[in-house]
Amino acid sequence: MGNTIAPRIENAEKTGVLQVSGLKLKKVPEQVKHLRNLRSLDLSNNKIENIDPWISVLKNLKVLNVENNKLKCFPAELYLLTKLESLNGNSNFLINFITPGAIVNLNELSCLRTVNLSHNYLTEFPVELCLKSIPINVIDLSNNQISIIPNAIASLQAIEINLNSNKISIISNGIAQCERLKVLRLEHNCLRLENFPTELLTNSQVSLICVDGNSFNMKDFYNLPGYSKYMERFTAMKKKAA
What we know:
By secondary structure, this protein is an alpha/beta fold. The protein folds into two domains: 1-95, Leucine-rich repeat, LRR (right-handed beta-alpha superhelix) (Alpha-Beta Horseshoe), CATH 3.80.10.10; 122-242, Alpha-Beta Horseshoe (Leucine-rich repeat, LRR (right-handed beta-alpha superhelix)), CATH 3.80.10. The chain is 16% helix and 13% strand. It is built from four helices and eleven strands. The strands form two sheets. A nine-stranded parallel β-sheet has the order 1-2-3-4-5-6-8-10-11. Strands 7-9 form a two-stranded parallel ribbon. Strand 10, helix 2 (199-202) and strand 11 form a beta-alpha-beta unit. The longest helix has 15 residues, at 227-241. The radius of gyration is 20 Å and the shape is elongated.
Protein backbone atom coordinates (compact mmCIF):
# COMPACT_ATOMS: atom_id res chain seq x y z
CA MET A 1 0.00 0.00 0.00
CA GLY A 2 2.85 2.35 0.83
CA ASN A 3 4.24 1.96 -2.69
CA THR A 4 0.82 2.91 -4.04
CA ILE A 5 0.47 6.00 -1.88
CA ALA A 6 4.02 7.38 -2.11
CA PRO A 7 3.83 8.59 -5.75
CA ARG A 8 0.41 10.10 -5.08
CA ILE A 9 1.78 12.02 -2.10
CA GLU A 10 4.69 13.22 -4.22
CA ASN A 11 2.31 14.39 -6.93
CA ALA A 12 0.08 16.12 -4.37
CA GLU A 13 3.07 18.13 -3.13
CA LYS A 14 3.22 19.68 -6.60
CA THR A 15 -0.48 19.92 -7.48
CA GLY A 16 -2.25 20.44 -4.15
CA VAL A 17 -4.61 17.60 -5.08
CA LEU A 18 -4.51 14.14 -3.48
CA GLN A 19 -6.65 11.28 -4.75
CA VAL A 20 -6.43 8.05 -2.74
CA SER A 21 -9.85 6.67 -3.58
CA GLY A 22 -10.52 2.93 -3.54
CA LEU A 23 -7.29 1.80 -1.85
CA LYS A 24 -8.98 -0.07 1.05
CA LEU A 25 -7.49 2.42 3.52
CA LYS A 26 -8.60 2.05 7.14
CA LYS A 27 -7.20 5.42 8.21
CA VAL A 28 -6.06 8.66 6.64
CA PRO A 29 -2.38 8.21 5.70
CA GLU A 30 -0.06 10.00 8.15
CA GLN A 31 1.89 11.50 5.25
CA VAL A 32 -1.11 13.67 4.44
CA LYS A 33 -0.52 15.88 7.48
CA HIS A 34 2.67 17.20 5.85
CA LEU A 35 0.81 18.42 2.75
CA ARG A 36 0.18 21.89 4.16
CA ASN A 37 -0.75 23.32 0.74
CA LEU A 38 -3.30 20.61 -0.03
CA ARG A 39 -6.49 22.01 -1.58
CA SER A 40 -8.39 18.84 -2.46
CA LEU A 41 -8.43 15.51 -0.60
CA ASP A 42 -10.32 12.54 -2.05
CA LEU A 43 -10.56 9.64 0.41
CA SER A 44 -13.70 8.13 -1.09
CA ASN A 45 -14.42 4.41 -1.40
CA ASN A 46 -12.17 3.21 1.41
CA LYS A 47 -12.79 1.73 4.87
CA ILE A 48 -11.89 4.72 7.02
CA GLU A 49 -13.63 4.78 10.43
CA ASN A 50 -12.15 7.98 11.88
CA ILE A 51 -10.67 11.24 10.71
CA ASP A 52 -7.86 12.25 13.05
CA PRO A 53 -7.89 15.69 14.70
CA TRP A 54 -4.69 16.57 12.85
CA ILE A 55 -6.85 17.15 9.75
CA SER A 56 -6.99 20.71 11.13
CA VAL A 57 -3.42 21.39 9.94
CA LEU A 58 -4.63 21.35 6.33
CA LYS A 59 -5.44 25.05 6.44
CA ASN A 60 -5.74 25.40 2.66
CA LEU A 61 -8.14 22.50 2.14
CA LYS A 62 -11.13 23.43 -0.03
CA VAL A 63 -12.55 20.02 -0.93
CA LEU A 64 -12.90 17.04 1.42
CA ASN A 65 -14.46 13.90 -0.05
CA VAL A 66 -14.92 10.92 2.28
CA GLU A 67 -17.83 9.35 0.42
CA ASN A 68 -18.43 5.63 0.95
CA ASN A 69 -16.33 4.95 4.05
CA LYS A 70 -17.22 3.87 7.60
CA LEU A 71 -17.24 7.20 9.42
CA LYS A 72 -19.56 7.59 12.41
CA CYS A 73 -18.88 11.32 12.86
CA PHE A 74 -16.57 14.15 11.86
CA PRO A 75 -14.00 15.49 14.34
CA ALA A 76 -14.67 18.77 16.14
CA GLU A 77 -11.48 20.12 14.56
CA LEU A 78 -13.41 20.46 11.30
CA TYR A 79 -14.08 24.08 12.29
CA LEU A 80 -10.40 24.89 11.72
CA LEU A 81 -10.66 24.16 7.98
CA THR A 82 -11.63 27.75 7.31
CA LYS A 83 -11.18 27.54 3.52
CA LEU A 84 -13.36 24.45 3.10
CA GLU A 85 -15.89 24.84 0.28
CA SER A 86 -17.18 21.30 -0.23
CA LEU A 87 -17.75 18.48 2.27
CA ASN A 88 -18.92 15.10 0.99
CA GLY A 89 -19.72 12.48 3.63
CA ASN A 90 -22.27 10.58 1.56
CA SER A 91 -22.73 6.84 2.24
CA ASN A 92 -20.99 6.39 5.57
CA PHE A 93 -22.21 5.26 8.99
CA LEU A 94 -22.74 8.77 10.37
CA ILE A 95 -24.85 8.73 13.52
CA ASN A 96 -23.75 12.24 14.50
CA PHE A 97 -22.39 15.03 12.34
CA ILE A 98 -19.74 16.08 14.88
CA THR A 99 -18.15 13.99 17.65
CA PRO A 100 -20.78 13.66 20.44
CA GLY A 101 -20.13 15.89 23.44
CA ALA A 102 -17.71 18.14 21.58
CA ILE A 103 -18.20 21.87 22.03
CA VAL A 104 -17.76 23.24 18.55
CA ASN A 105 -18.49 26.49 16.76
CA LEU A 106 -18.38 26.30 12.97
CA ASN A 107 -18.65 30.08 12.53
CA GLU A 108 -15.29 30.18 10.77
CA LEU A 109 -16.47 27.97 7.90
CA SER A 110 -17.40 31.05 5.92
CA CYS A 111 -16.44 29.48 2.56
CA LEU A 112 -18.53 26.31 2.87
CA ARG A 113 -20.92 26.00 -0.08
CA THR A 114 -21.95 22.35 -0.41
CA VAL A 115 -22.53 19.67 2.23
CA ASN A 116 -23.56 16.12 1.33
CA LEU A 117 -24.39 13.85 4.27
CA SER A 118 -26.92 11.69 2.42
CA HIS A 119 -27.29 7.93 2.90
CA ASN A 120 -26.24 7.83 6.54
CA TYR A 121 -27.89 7.18 9.92
CA LEU A 122 -28.35 10.72 11.22
CA THR A 123 -31.32 11.03 13.57
CA GLU A 124 -30.95 14.75 14.23
CA PHE A 125 -30.62 17.73 11.93
CA PRO A 126 -26.98 18.98 12.00
CA VAL A 127 -27.72 22.24 13.82
CA GLU A 128 -23.99 23.01 13.90
CA LEU A 129 -24.46 24.23 10.32
CA CYS A 130 -27.34 26.56 11.20
CA LEU A 131 -25.25 29.70 11.38
CA LYS A 132 -25.60 33.03 9.59
CA SER A 133 -21.88 32.98 8.80
CA ILE A 134 -21.98 29.75 6.75
CA PRO A 135 -23.25 30.56 3.22
CA ILE A 136 -24.22 27.04 2.17
CA ASN A 137 -25.79 26.71 -1.27
CA VAL A 138 -26.89 23.08 -1.03
CA ILE A 139 -27.17 20.71 1.92
CA ASP A 140 -28.14 17.11 1.10
CA LEU A 141 -29.43 15.12 4.08
CA SER A 142 -31.55 12.68 2.10
CA ASN A 143 -31.82 9.03 3.11
CA ASN A 144 -31.20 9.45 6.84
CA GLN A 145 -33.37 8.95 9.94
CA ILE A 146 -34.09 12.60 10.81
CA SER A 147 -37.55 13.13 12.33
CA ILE A 148 -37.58 16.79 13.39
CA ILE A 149 -36.57 20.02 11.68
CA PRO A 150 -35.66 22.14 14.74
CA ASN A 151 -36.05 25.85 15.54
CA ALA A 152 -32.36 26.40 14.76
CA ILE A 153 -33.20 25.95 11.07
CA ALA A 154 -34.15 29.65 10.97
CA SER A 155 -30.45 30.59 10.84
CA LEU A 156 -29.50 28.13 8.09
CA GLN A 157 -28.29 29.98 4.99
CA ALA A 158 -28.93 27.18 2.48
CA ILE A 159 -30.51 27.85 -0.91
CA GLU A 160 -31.54 24.20 -1.24
CA ILE A 161 -32.25 21.62 1.46
CA ASN A 162 -32.77 17.98 0.49
CA LEU A 163 -34.45 15.92 3.22
CA ASN A 164 -36.04 13.31 0.98
CA SER A 165 -36.45 9.82 2.46
CA ASN A 166 -36.13 10.61 6.15
CA LYS A 167 -38.69 10.31 8.94
CA ILE A 168 -39.68 13.97 9.15
CA SER A 169 -42.92 14.42 11.11
CA ILE A 170 -42.35 17.84 12.71
CA ILE A 171 -41.14 21.04 11.03
CA SER A 172 -40.39 24.20 12.98
CA ASN A 173 -42.15 27.34 11.77
CA GLY A 174 -38.66 28.85 11.78
CA ILE A 175 -37.99 27.28 8.40
CA ALA A 176 -40.02 30.07 6.82
CA GLN A 177 -37.40 32.50 8.15
CA CYS A 178 -34.56 30.98 6.13
CA GLU A 179 -33.48 34.07 4.20
CA ARG A 180 -31.94 32.33 1.18
CA LEU A 181 -34.00 29.13 0.98
CA LYS A 182 -35.51 28.55 -2.48
CA VAL A 183 -35.81 24.76 -2.75
CA LEU A 184 -37.08 22.38 -0.07
CA ARG A 185 -37.24 18.65 -0.77
CA LEU A 186 -39.32 16.62 1.70
CA GLU A 187 -40.49 13.68 -0.40
CA HIS A 188 -41.07 10.30 1.26
CA ASN A 189 -41.25 11.35 4.89
CA CYS A 190 -43.85 11.00 7.67
CA LEU A 191 -45.45 14.43 7.45
CA ARG A 192 -49.11 14.96 8.28
CA LEU A 193 -50.89 17.89 6.74
CA GLU A 194 -51.67 19.47 10.13
CA ASN A 195 -47.93 19.54 10.90
CA PHE A 196 -46.94 21.35 7.72
CA PRO A 197 -46.02 24.99 8.50
CA THR A 198 -48.22 27.08 6.22
CA GLU A 199 -45.81 29.98 6.76
CA LEU A 200 -43.68 28.26 4.12
CA LEU A 201 -46.46 28.94 1.64
CA THR A 202 -47.57 32.37 2.80
CA ASN A 203 -44.45 34.04 4.10
CA SER A 204 -41.17 32.63 2.78
CA GLN A 205 -38.79 32.85 -0.17
CA VAL A 206 -39.25 29.18 -1.10
CA SER A 207 -40.30 28.70 -4.73
CA LEU A 208 -40.11 24.90 -4.96
CA ILE A 209 -41.53 22.56 -2.30
CA CYS A 210 -41.51 18.81 -3.00
CA VAL A 211 -43.71 16.78 -0.61
CA ASP A 212 -44.89 13.71 -2.54
CA GLY A 213 -44.93 10.47 -0.57
CA ASN A 214 -46.04 11.79 2.82
CA SER A 215 -49.04 11.02 5.04
CA PHE A 216 -51.52 13.20 3.17
CA ASN A 217 -53.28 13.52 -0.15
CA MET A 218 -51.66 16.02 -2.50
CA LYS A 219 -55.09 17.42 -3.37
CA ASP A 220 -55.46 18.45 0.27
CA PHE A 221 -52.02 20.04 0.16
CA TYR A 222 -53.09 22.16 -2.80
CA ASN A 223 -55.98 23.49 -0.68
CA LEU A 224 -53.80 24.73 2.17
CA PRO A 225 -54.00 28.46 3.03
CA GLY A 226 -51.36 30.31 1.06
CA TYR A 227 -50.87 27.68 -1.64
CA SER A 228 -51.84 30.19 -4.35
CA LYS A 229 -49.22 32.61 -3.02
CA TYR A 230 -46.60 29.86 -3.18
CA MET A 231 -47.65 29.09 -6.76
CA GLU A 232 -47.02 32.72 -7.70
CA ARG A 233 -43.40 32.32 -6.57
CA PHE A 234 -43.15 28.94 -8.30
CA THR A 235 -44.45 30.36 -11.60
CA ALA A 236 -42.12 33.36 -11.38
CA MET A 237 -39.18 31.01 -10.79
CA LYS A 238 -40.14 28.93 -13.84
CA LYS A 239 -40.40 32.01 -16.03
CA LYS A 240 -37.04 33.26 -14.83
CA ALA A 241 -35.43 29.90 -15.62
CA ALA A 242 -36.97 29.72 -19.11
